[in-house]
Amino acid sequence: MLHFSKYQGLGNDFLMVDARRALPDEAPFALTPARIQRLCDRRFGIGGDGVILALTPEAQGDVRMRIFNADGSEPEMCGNGIRCLARFLADSDGDQPGRRWQIETLAGIIVPELLDDGLIRVDMGRPYLEPATVPTTLATGPAGLPQGSLTVDGTSFEVAAAGMGNPHVVIPVADVESIDLQRLGAALEVHPAFPARTNVHFVQMLAPDHLRMRVWERGAGPTLACGTGACATLVACRLLGLSADQARVELPGGPLTIEWNGDPDSSVWMSGPAEAVFDGMVTPELWGEGPAQEEHVAALPASQPSSTDTIDCATACVNGCLRPEHCPSAEARARAMALLQNTSLDGLVTMASESLEARTRARFSREL
Fold it and tell me: DSSP readout, 168-221?
């Protein structure tokens, strides 16, 4: 069974999975692109912009985060996602305002903090302004970040690029509502100037401290919000002389407060909400059958691996252990079997229900 909680930050919604105490061959580790796509499908699955795993840390962090887009791809980081993860951790562990987490991501250590008003403030780290670190083939311009003119679908734009551990292109426009986001966002995402593809943001300056933007997320398409995108947009607009050090950034799902003093070595700060939506369990039919299962079977190796090969037991051993004499998951499997043999079905359901109930009580006590 895959237990999950759904959280949203300004309408950017994620399926949260606590895998900090999961065994190596349990469901969270068997996520494949096909399964993620199925989970995130808003008609045939649960629905979400992505899936986030809370994992045991590999270095000096408190927890490790992996995030997957709705198309199954894995981005480096997500600002709304990390706020949702912080709220999920606080709800799960009973943490109070003032709690800070050192979260390991593919973009480095990111540090969110739970505030008294329920918002999450995140030290997003310094922006990446060198073309190779974004990455982009745009050259560094007079404003001190990658700049240039790009033409897509017969339309030319003056753009700027910035990285927040993931790539972003920012396009100032007079009216964001007039932009054909579906057409232009899709074209800019895969523009050759961005070898790793890019997130796309059109921004309108309402005032130096008030920006309005629309988002096309790499691997997800139009979304209601993008935290790293709001940060990259403020950075670009600040360097272009269009915004102040701090601004209210309006996204379709609501506002974020972004701060950056213009120093390339200084952190960007993001403050915004994250809220629980519901908890649940994935049914066996959705999780264990259909295209995802067929993908695993098709991916089985043609021959037995040697004792020195590394195998991902969660995917390679779907039809049985390929190395029974030297199984890397034997100890974990033995613990799992002992739990199953010594616990009734009612007991397992009770364990799951108590976990969900504890998280729900933590939310209610916080709101009282």
Answer: EEEEE-S-GGGS-HHHHHHHHHT-TT-TT--EEEEEEEEETTEEEEEEEETTTE
Domain with CATH 3.10.310.10 in the chain: 1-125+272-368, 131-266
For 1-125+272-368, CATH gives: 3.10.310.10
Per-run averaged pLDDT (10 residues), the chain, 368 residues: 91 95 74 92 94 94 96 93 97 95 95 95 97 98 97 94 97 97 96 97 98 96 95 98 98 97 97 96 70 37 44 52 65 60 63 62 60
| Strand intervals (E) in the chain | 2-9, 12-18, 50-55, 63-69, 103-105, 108-114, 120-123, 147-152, 155-163, 167-172, 199-207, 210-217, 221-223, 246-251, 254-259, 269-272, 275-282
Is 313 among the catalytic positions?
no
Q: Which CATH number fits domain 131-266: 3.10.310.10, 3.40.50.150, 3.10.450.540, 3.90.1150.10?
A: 3.10.310.10
User: Is 327 assigned a catalytic role?
Assistant: no
Active-site residue identified among 226, 237, 313, 317: 226
**Letter string b/e over residues 255-294, b meaning 16 or more CB atoms within 10 A of that residue's CB:** bbbbbbeeeeeebbbbbbbbebeebeebeeebbbeeebee
- Six token digits for residue 343: 């616990």
Distance CA 49, CA 11 (A): 9
Q: Identify the active-site residue in 78, 84, 313, 317.
A: 78
Both structure tokens of 53: 């795993």
